[in-house]
Model the fold of this input.
Amino acid sequence: MPAGTSAPHRVTVLGSFTLHVHHAPVPLGVDARRVVAYLAVHPRPQRRAALAVDLWPGVPVAAAMRLLDDAVLAVDVPGLLVTDADGALSLGPDVEVDLAGAMALLRTLPDVPAAEDPDLALLAADILPGWTAAWLVVERERFRQLRLHATEERSLRLTAAARYDEAVALAQQAVHAAPSRESARRALIEAHLAQGNIAAAVAEYDEYQELLRSSVGAAPAFALDALMPPSPAWPVMRARSVMPRSAVQLPGLRSVRASGSTRRLVAGGSVPGTFR
Done:
């Protein structure tokens, strides 16, 4: 396709399914939509028998093949679907797929300097999150892990480049997508600390620990501390050995005991000592 021209067909599967032909939305029936979505997620030509079995599991192969043929006929969008010499089915060469763009971004993002601002919107959503088809589960989780890792790594690079607001925003996106993911919390806490926002870092730490306690019943009290690199901004991170949270003296924070034996750092109250 010549540079500067847009694809006549565009399929999106990130966040939701859409089909546009020359920028106009085109509705599809349920089965036709499933066929197009499958081919968008699996870009290589698909043998019809295997495709039919994946799309209609539990249905006899002959019946599934008939359903596939009907669904392909129902698409009725010239150039959207093509068949190779062996009869395998795929999307046409001029079909633009947002997932393909996201995968290309994932490959190039590590080489993009922190001073540049690539469009990361393609990394903000999972593949068809509302769909429950078995054929989708593995690909959706694979892409989810790739996009979260890339988002976290980009946040860490932005933190190192002193672009703290952007680093915090990206890390928050990863935390929102996977609240129990330690690497996402780490990226966010590191960005807060580098920005000098110690209260936000402590709040994030406490929120994560509480999430682990409520979800698994017990959490290692210092698991996240151990993952962090030494930081002069927060004494508990600088000391690799286990130390009581109550021993950390930060301006404007005081230690209180909640229900049970857990201590938390909260805003307010005087703290002895002066920090320079």
About this structure: The domain at 9-97 is CATH 1.10.10.10 (Arc Repressor Mutant, subunit A). Confidence is low (pLDDT under 50) at residues 233-258, 265-276.
